[in-house]
Design brief:
By secondary structure, the chain is an alpha+beta fold. It contains eight helices and eight strands. A two-stranded antiparallel ribbon has the order 1-2. Strands 3-4 form a two-stranded antiparallel ribbon.
């Protein structure tokens, strides 16, 4: 297990600002914005420590960095038990870590293998165990059938779709309304045909109570008596993506 502070505080902050979730980091660290967490300070604390813990697993350094954030308040400063519990909770669930270029393959937090990253989030050993790509003649491939869509003309079945936008523009609510439409077999969503089926909503930001509140409101607006039985929820605040 590696918990050494290989990077300086300034380097960790710089990497956080260049990472793919930089907007999330800046909202928490610079502005102390807890709105995405419905004002839940503890959930926001976990989220910020989780972002920084990708780059450093040193508890003292994480504490020091947090103290420089807009989220820092009396509870953090005067409650060592709360600080320790928050940091330990994040580190216990951290499954991916950053290693500077040239660091080589090492054993990371919780015994997971990590590789030197050329940029935040990259790993050289991601393709391990996969079959090598093969060249094929397209003329030998039989004409495929019609493309299947979960949302007609918008989201193809069996493919990854990304919903991207600035913070606070209701991306989560939009995704949740789509989940209700698919799980409930509504047939249409935003005037597009929808293929029904079970949905698992994986959430790294809010609590089950808050998402349940949103789902019930969406269902009432859609004329449903209750949330669809096929709509499943997994709350993963403080967990790494692989662990969840």
């Amino acid at each position: 297990m590696t918990r050494d502070a290989a990077l300086s505080d300034a380097e960790v902050l710089a990497l956080c600002r260049r990472a793919g979730n930089a907007a999330k980091f800046e909202g928490l660290y610079d502005r102390g914005d807890t709105a995405p967490y419905r004002g839940d300070d503890s959930a926001a604390d976990l989220a910020l420590v989780g972002v920084m813990a990708f780059f450093t697993q040193d508890p003292d350094q994480l504490d020091r960095l947090f103290r420089g954030s807009a989220l820092c308040r009396d509870k953090w400063l005067r409650r060592p038990d709360y600080r320790r519990r928050t940091i330990e909770r994040v580190l216990e669930r951290q499954t991916e870590t950053y290693f500077p270029p040239g660091a080589g393959v090492r054993v990371g937090v919780n015994g997971h293998r990590g590789a030197a990253s050329q940029h935040p989030g990259s790993h050289r050993d991601r393709g391990a165990g996969r079959k090598k790509p093969q060249v094929v003649r397209l003329s030998s491939v039989k004409p495929p059938g019609p493309r299947r869509y979960v949302v007609d003309g918008l989201i193809a079945a069996a493919y990854i779709a990304l919903l991207h936008g600035d913070g606070g523009v209701a991306k989560s609510l939009l995704a949740l309304s789509l989940a209700v439409a698919v799980a409930g077999g509504r047939g249409t969503w935003l005037e597009r045909r929808v293929e029904g089926g079970p949905v698992l909503y994986l959430d790294f930001e809010l609590t089950v109570e808050e998402q349940a509140r949103r789902v019930w409101q969406l269902c009432r607006g859609a004329g449903l008596e209750e949330p669809p039985e096929n709509l499943l929820y997994l709350g993963a605040v403080g967990f790494g993506a692989r662990e969840a």
